[in-house]
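Schema walk-through. Below, the input block comes first and the output block second. Nothing else is stored per chain. Lengths vary across the set, and this one has 272 residues.
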Amino acid sequence: MTSVSVIDELKKFQILELLEQGKRVDGRAFDEPRKLVIEPNAIPKANGSARVRLGDSEVICGVKIQPDRPFPDMGDKGIFICTAELLPFSHPSVETGPPGPDVIELARVVDRGIRESHMIDLSQLVIEKNKSVVGVFADNVVVDYDGNLFDTCAYAATAAILSSKTPKWEMKNDVPTLIEGAELNIPITTIPVSVTMGKIGNHIIVDPNGDEWDSMEARITITTDSNGNICALQKGGNGGFTFDEVIQCGKTSVKVGAKIREKLKQVMGTKK
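--- output ---
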């Protein structure tokens, strides 16, 4: 354990030393995310899916769409739920068993970014008010981890939703019944994009890789919609951000998010 700790401290020292020189370990600019690769329709039997690689982090997201009972206070809206899971072989630190706090937070941050942006018009996913609605369930599976799963999972879930087709149901004898051959696009209103930034020393960097992630004192994830409006924010880590740093992070999230959004639109063939 001691040798590992020493190696980690040496890595942190090297990363901070490079940052002081205006450099990053992989040669990127401070506001430059890693290469993003999006492969839509990666799971043929899913209602929608995508495989996303952000640098060396890789996530597969599948979407399942089915009738469900509405939430008690939302009888006039469909359901959206996002989950996350790390496979044991994705990283040596990942263990089998129920999800830990980090994985639970990961799922909630991705879910909130999509939900609070109102990406899906849930009011159009109602079969019969207060009785039956359409549920959209996006499940992220991490197959390779090298830092910043927040954005990797968010991009995978967003791409999977954009690729999704929903069956159509009608109520017969109080039971949602599938209409054969009827298939619709999910009603999309916007494309949310999250941008995660890490703070190391006094330096803030976009999309930290694995070594940078382990060296951060604090992180912030900001999600914007297609109009550049901030719709979700999550801060983590033991360190903090000044007010001016948060403002700058917001501006960076809008700028970087716009580029990621164009990539999503190009690959997915959408105009939203």
